[in-house]
Design brief:
The chain is mainly alpha-helical. It has five helices and four strands, in the order αααααββββ.
Length: about 140
């Protein structure tokens, strides 16, 4: 995913086009870090398939604010400067990798199948539109 994001950043997001800024206070960054920590621990303490998607966001909320507070490269510091390139490149790279994964999964002999309580019949390849990693089952 990071390689795809780097490719998007190199090809499409070389020039900074937006000046809209989002500045997080130190207190907000600290709260985000605590929310990320809680999201990473919650599925271990309260095992439930509904908490599995929280893990994907938990590490972003945990690590990005820590990097921002330490002055390291982070999405939070980028947004404070009005530089949205890293965020857009990561989102685009993740989208492309997700589509490719589902494309390969669709044609595989042993594949992931998904059970989703609502709208499970509206699919992109094998994945229902409203699915998350919590609903994956190996068939």
């Amino acid at each position: 995913m990071f390689e795809s994001a780097d490719l998007f950043a190199f090809v499409f997001f070389q020039r900074q086009t937006s000046r809209a800024t989002i500045k997080f206070s130190k207190a907000a960054l600290f709260v985000m870090t605590l929310a990320g920590l809680a999201g990473a621990i919650a599925p271990l303490v309260f095992p439930s398939e509904w908490l599995a998607p929280v893990v994907w966001l938990a590490f972003i909320l945990l690590l990005d604010p820590v990097n921002a507070l330490r002055g390291q490269p982070s999405i939070s510091n980028d947004l404070a400067r009005g530089d949205w390139r890293r965020l857009w490149a990561l989102l685009a790279g993740g989208f492309v990798c997700g589509v490719l994964w589902e494309c390969w999964n669709y044609w595989a002999l042993t594949k992931w199948t998904y059970t989703v309580p609502f709208f499970g019949n509206i699919k992109i390849f094998e994945m229902p539109v409203l699915a998350s990693s919590a609903f994956r089952r190996l068939r």
